[in-house]
Amino acid sequence: MDLEPGTMDSVRSGPYGQIFRPDNFVFGQSSAGNYWANGHYTKGAELIDSIHLSYCLLVSSVASRKHYTVDVVVAWYTVNLVVFLVDKKLPGSLLYHDKVSCPTKFQEFGARTSELHGHVVAGNNCNVVRTRNRQAIKAVLSSEKEGKVSPATNGGLRGKLKKVVLAYSGGLDTSVIVPWLRENYGCEVVCFTADVGQGIKELEGLEEKAKASGACQLVVKDLQEEFVRDFIFPCLRAGAIYERKYLLGTSMARPVIAKVRFELTFFALNPELNVVAPWREWDIQGREDAIEYAKKHNVPVPVTKKSIYSRDRNLWHLSHEGDILEDPANEPKKDMYMMSVDPEDAPDKPEYIEIGIVSGLPVSVNGKELSPASLLAELNEIGGRHGIGRIDMVENRLVGMKSRGVYETPGGTILFAAARELESLTLDRETMQVKDSIALKYAELVYAGRWFDPLRESMDAFMEKITETTTGSVTLKLYKGSVSVTGRKSPYSLYREDISSFESGHIYNQADAAGFIKLYGLPMRVRAMLEKGI
User: Fold this and answer.
1) Which of these ranges, 48-52, 274-278, 476-480, 494-498, has the smallest mean pLDDT?
2) What percentage of the chain has pLDDT greater than the value 70?
3) pLDDT digits (tens, 9 = 90+) for 367-384
4) Residues with Cβ < 8 Å from 454, sequence gap 6 or more?
5) Contact indicator for 305, 291 with CB cutoff of 8 Å
6) Confidence at 385, pLDDT banded by 50, 70, 90
7) What residues contact 443, with CB distance under 8 A and at least 6 apart?
8) Is 154 helix (H, G, I), strand (E, B) or coil?
9) Least confident among 147-151, 225-229, 328-332, 429-433
10) Is the Cβ–Cβ distance between 114 and 67 less than 8 Å?
11) pLDDT at residue 492 above 60?
12) Domains of the chain and any CATH numbers
């Protein structure tokens, strides 16, 4: 199905007519020429499929949460286009936007798509036609000439924003983002740091560093208890492990701080927020480029070209990426680790600990009840000195590429071992199998940043229900990097010594097994008979 240039005739007559009605779907044309008419889109159905996807995503993010009556507006930008949602009831409003772009133009196009709400979005003197919201999307675009900005965007190379809140860690990336935002958007930058247990050293001097980078203010909020209680422990209860190894430390921290993970969180909580994603817009190609940019703008950064690790730390784990780790054949250097000692250097004497659990959630260590954050911090210290919780893996990223990462999760490794062992007492076989299968999808959702997805929330309700009786304690032995279970007990244990004992014959007679075996093996007997022609 080819679309006629500049019209909706084939859409009205085609299968998409029910979706894109002329009264709520508007095309704009570029003064540089109608690229649709010039043959850039000969496969009209594919184009409409792309627009349809953007339309569905936008409507699900916006209209489902607030009672908007929306128009859909499409504006051209050379061989790219941007899809808007505007509110019919509020002339001048611009609810949301998305883009459908050709890969060769993505950088050029993406450079200006972060701005909306009446400001520049992207394009070449584009005028949107047939819409009652001209003021909202008015002359959406500046010239394509490098460095030239429209009157609506003076104040920055890419546009003008009044204020941006930056999720700030003080690391290389966020340190250079501060001057980059000021240079490109002429905006005030407020840095926000969530204390999720990254350590006192990580927070020391952070305000001075943020202001030295160009921020007007740093806000630090202690979210450790909330992080562990509302995000880590539900994942622990669900048994969520990504690709057999990864305990999801970085992914769990994103929702509480609020890549794709950040943006999906914002979309779910407030779709009207404007997200600026510098890593999709800037020309910085790698960490060495970032270091050069930092030096140019006198930004203090904690790395050198000779030793470059990308780290992410919180109360649950510490991740290491980059430098020699980019070659999966290289062994990590011994001095890279920060939360745990080398197992070879751990104490020669094992340590025994007891973890108390109530309804699938940890509550105590060695009989001492602790808050969620305090409990995890205690286990990090204990596990770290025994070299517990080191993971070296190659994982599949959300975008499809593989990445090598090394993780330290001492407390988390201990808790997973304890929780899983207690379930062996309190859950029957079928329930455990279903729980394990759901845990795989649960982990994928968390890894992909879909914490607030209704599917994950529904899975959480299931996990909460089936672990109601997962209460008791587990004793573990920690020794030179290993965690061994030495004991477990629960008032809801499905294990009965009088039934399981090889000595007892009071509960059932061993002869009862004959009938069961005969029926259980029936399919195999039938197949054997068939093969032998019996």
Assistant:
1) 48-52
2) 63
3) 999 999 999 999 999 999
4) none
5) yes
6) very high
7) 235, 238, 240, 241, 242, 248
8) coil
9) 147-151
10) no
11) yes
12) 1-157 (no CATH), 316-489 (3.90.1260.10), 504-532 (no CATH)
Radius of gyration of the chain (CA): 29
What pTM was computed for the model? 0.64
The backbone torsions φ and ψ at residue 24, rounded to the nearest 5 degrees and listed phi first, read -135, 20
Q: What is the predicted pLDDT for the residue at 9?
A: 40
DSSP state, 225?
H
pLDDT for the residue numbered 409: 95
150's enclosing H/E stretch is none
Tokens of 254: 């994103």
- Give kind and range of the element (H or E) at residue 357: strand 351-358
Task: Dihedral sign for Cα 16, 20, 23, 26, please.
Answer: negative
Q: Which amino acid is at 61?
A: S
Calculate the dihedral angle through the C-alpha atoms of 240, 245, 250, 254, rounding to the nearest 10 degrees. Answer: -20
Query: Residue 361's beta-bridge partner residues?
Result: 358
Question: Residues 352, 383: contact at Cβ < 8 Å?
Answer: no
3-state secondary structure of 163: strand
Beta strands in 260-375 (DSSP E): 310-313, 318-321, 351-358, 361-365, 368-369
| Sign of the alpha-carbon dihedral angle for 239, 241, 247, 250 | negative
Specify the amino acid at residue 12: R
Pairing of strands 217-222, 188-195: parallel
Are residues 83 and 116 in contact, defined by beta-carbon separation less than 8 angstroms? no
Length of the chain: 534
Beta 318-321 vs 310-313: how paired, if at all? antiparallel
Environment class of 415 (CB within 10 Å of its CB; exposed 0-12, middle 13-18, buried 19+): buried
Q: Pairing between strand 361-365 and 351-358? A: antiparallel
Phi, psi at residue 45, to the nearest 5°? -60, -40
DSSP 235-280: HHHHT--BTTTB--HHHHHHHHH--HHHHHHHHHH-TTSPPP-HHH
Closest CA to 25 of 98, 128, 116: 128
Burial 429-460 (b: 16+ CB within 10 A, else e): eeebeebeebbeebbebbbbbbbbeeebeebb
Contacts 24+ apart (CB under 8 A), 14-20: 14/45, 14/48, 16/48, 16/52, 19/52, 19/55, 20/48, 20/51, 20/52, 20/55, 20/72
Mean pLDDT over residues 76-91, rounded? 48
Q: Check residue 316 and report its DSSP letter.
A: S
pLDDT (tens digit, 9 = 90+) per residue, 145-176? 333 333 333 455 666 788 888 889 888 888 99
Q: Which of 204, 245, 196 is nearest to 376 (CA)?
A: 196
Structure tokens at 316: 């649950």
